[in-house]
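Fold this: Phosphoglycerate mutase family protein
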Amino acid sequence: MRSSDNDNNAMPRKNLRIIITRHGERVDFAVGEGWTNPTNGRSDPRIPHLPPRLNYEDWEFDSPLTVNGEAQSLRVGQRLLRTGLPIDYCYSSPAFRSIQTADKILESQGRREIIPVNIEPGLFECPLWYAGAPLPFLSIPELMGGYYNVQPYYSPVFGGVDINEDEIMYYKRSRKLIDAIVDVHKKMGGNILLSGHAGSLETLSRAAFHASPRPERLRELADRVDYCNYTILERNAITKAWSFIPQQTSAHHHSTRPLPRATTQPLYQPVPLSYYPNSSRMDHRRTHLPGTRRATNQLVPRSRSSTGRHFSHSSPQRVSRYTNPTVVGHKRVSRRARI
């Protein structure tokens, strides 16, 4: 046998770690009514600088992060770096809030310029929850024009978002995506960031463990995932077995406090609640969004949870089989999940 073969066989293999995170606080949930109106919300100090887009009102359907949301994302990156998890590869949902979250995590680690973000439509959440609303994602050239370090040559696993996809299909997509990402990186190992949505932690982690989907509980489980909560999976390079990585707790850093094991994985939050005195997640009395946005997309506010708002949609589009219709304002509508 050649010496080079011996060297290759003797080379230690690196474990693969996948950090799955939800995006940070959203502008539309925090600022509320009319934030895209130039006379109302655009000057709100909670809205960060945004890249230009042809139709500013498209932000209404592709909400960015608030300044607090950016701070949350920075704290996640700092926390990961302190625990020895610098990001080696990064994938993000095409939703701008997820791209911002990935960008800020990389920035906090000093890796923004060297680790490009791969925009992967397969990381978007269940499209059926949008009940026919438009999905005006920014293009790669628009993101690069806004000085975001995205990979223009990345070939995504999924070429786009299927607007008719339901929860079961969402689980299947997550399984195909996680398998594809692992197949690319399993020999190199390293730390991979997947910047997604509340449901991503459930669907991707169960996909990695080859656990059975539970679509009837997906919205309930997603509702327990707060802004910038994240979970860490590790694939052993030798046994190929998956496990959750528990994070050490510290009395000196509140950000290390593990949250209850609400779904299939331990969740971690980047900062204490008191860090956001004006955040929407702290104020359950904040005024709801208006009953309508556009004539063809009437949104009826529903009850709020800890991190956002539920909406009902009067669109005749297909709705989730796991959502019980209800009557609001003399219109039969279906509950739309917080995203």
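The mean pLDDT is 77. Residues 285-336 form one domain.
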